[in-house]
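Work Package 3 (structural annotation) set out to generate three-dimensional models for the target panel prioritized at the project kickoff. During this period the team completed the workflow that converts sequence records into discrete structure tokens, so that structures can be stored uniformly alongside our sequence database. As a representative example, we reproduce one entry of 193 residues exactly as it appears in the project archive.
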Amino acid sequence: MGYRTVNKPALALMALLAILFLVPASSLEWRPDLAHSGEWWRMVTGHLAHLNGWHLVLNLAGLAVVLALYPRFLPLATLATALFWLTLFISLGLLALLPELPGYRGFSGCLHGLAAILAIRGFREDRVFSASILVLLAGKLVIESAGLGLADTANLIGGPVVWQAHALGFAGGILFAGLSLLTPRTPRRSSPE
């Protein structure tokens, strides 16, 4: 049969984002003032909270597109590690680049990072396709940095688009994938016969 099995880590991530939408976003949102006063978890959870239902739907659709492009998604342990890395990388980057930013909600920065990680991992199978994805993402970031197209998205999601989070996610994804490639893999032990 020609059907594909459901990718469990990607499905779990989608379910997590949907479930967290039921939690008041104000208790999860990235807010530097509260993170500095001890609510450090916001450095992670702010990237899992959303402004409204349309914002969540856009991020879930983006995740579905990434999954369609790279059906061999990340294993659960790698996905969890990558997301933790990306959330902290983006959060610390936002603190450094936009110290005046009062708050942030959204998965789109992590989405850019996951796309970069999967594209770099995909070089083994199809260099042209993966390079094209990276070039398209980089081009999108250049367009966003010029402020083009952000107003329509901001109207839809009910808040400003923080394109710097997208750029930081992309950079964090490239760094994560690059470090993963440099890390020596331990050979699997064969079981005794």
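The mean pLDDT is 90.
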